[in-house]
Amino acid sequence: MSVVEQQHLIDLVDLTKVYDGETEALSRMNLYIRKKEFVTLLGPSGCGKTTTLRLIAGFEFPTAGQVYFEGKEISSLPPYRRHVNTVFQKYALFPHMNVFENIAFGLRLKKVDESTINARVAEMLEMVNLRGFGRRKVDTLSGGQQQRVAIARALANRPEVLLLDEPLGALDLKLRKEMQIELKAMQQQLGITFVYVTHDQEEALTMSDTIVVMKEGLVQQIGSPICIYNEPKNAFVADFIGESNILPGTMLHDELVSFEGHDFICVDRGFGENQPVDVVIRPEDVQLCAPNDGMLRGTVASIVFKGVHYEMMIQTGGFAFMVHSTLAKAPGEEVGLRIVPFDIHIMKREAAL
Q: With 274 labelled, which of 56, 77, 240, 250 sits at a CA distance of 20 to 30 A?
């Protein structure tokens, strides 16, 4: 086994899951997860992300393919024999137990001695900012506090991997944003591997070391948040990770692309000459200027205030560009559009269905 392979904690090899003999929820997935990594499985409902998590946890068994943990196949092992714990969106806390006993539950099942239990629960309460809450009943806690208890219970067993299935989905927006930061801080403090499932692109971009974008049981792209956002592999990824202007173009040759009737210098290479491509431009990367100073010229069709910026649709003739800017332009106003080469991203043209 190579040095790189030894760093892998989990390997999913040609992992496939078929339900009822016909519904393929996951198709030949290949993915490795490294120690101390925060990996997010991201995609819309039905894309296979929760199925992947359940296969890692042992709640489901693969139709084909293998799950490896530290180089050993665990595909058929039951959940209790895997070094993982899971936190669900529904926290599944025990209402007849107080906070202390909820956190201590897994330790008692393992017959850990009482002094260790007391020390471990106190440590977990401190970590999730619930010191002094041990005697409280769980049904008196807020949603955010209950979520912290569920995480503390999972972490009390000191798993090598924590699996989280949309754990913030039931929280309000402000609390969800706060918990994103707290979860990432916990993961870094503990130095354990987190595998996180969400359909929320902001959560994925905020917390992850690696994002796995999925669609209909297939992996679309794997990479860092910056790579996924700035260099999407296809139109689905570009559209799912943030908002994008995606328009047809022609790659004339390396570092020169044509779209909307104009030639633009870009930084992409290797697409060939005179090849049809898709051009991706993020709304925040379109700069407004005077009509005569722009690479393109357009008319503002609509404007919406979004809090930190204005969102405008600007019609250039053949395409309506979405533009995010702190400068407000009135509907009907003529403007120029500037795009620097680094902000023009080229993708292979997807075949029509």
A: 240
pLDDT value of residue 353: 43
Residues paired with residue 68 on neighbouring β-strands, in sequence order: 11, 73
**Lookup result for tokens 């956002």:** 229
CA-based nearest residue to 144, from 127, 130, 132, 156: 130
The CATH number that applies at residue 262 is 2.40.50.140
Task: Select from 200, 235, 270 the last residue of a domain.
Answer: 235
Which residues are CB-contacts of 213 (< 8 A; sequence separation ≥ 6)?
42, 43, 219, 220, 221, 222, 228, 236, 237, 240, 241
C-alpha torsion sign, points 150, 153, 155, 160: negative
User: Measuring CA to CA, which residue among 179, 209, 181, 206 is closest to residue 194?
Assistant: 209
Rounded Cα distance, 229 and 348, in Å = 17
The predicted-structure confidence for 171-187, as pLDDT tens digits, reads as follows: 788 888 888 888 898 89
Domains: count for the chain = 2
- pLDDT < 70 stretches in the chain: 1-6, 351-353
| Domain CATH number, residue 124 | 3.40.50.300
Is 177 contained in some domain? Answer: yes
CB distance 29 to 219 below 8 Å: yes
**Please, how many CA atoms are within 13 Å of residue 306, restricted to the half-sphere of its CB?**
15
- Looking up tokens 């925060």, which residue turns up? 38
Domain that holds residue 169: 3-235
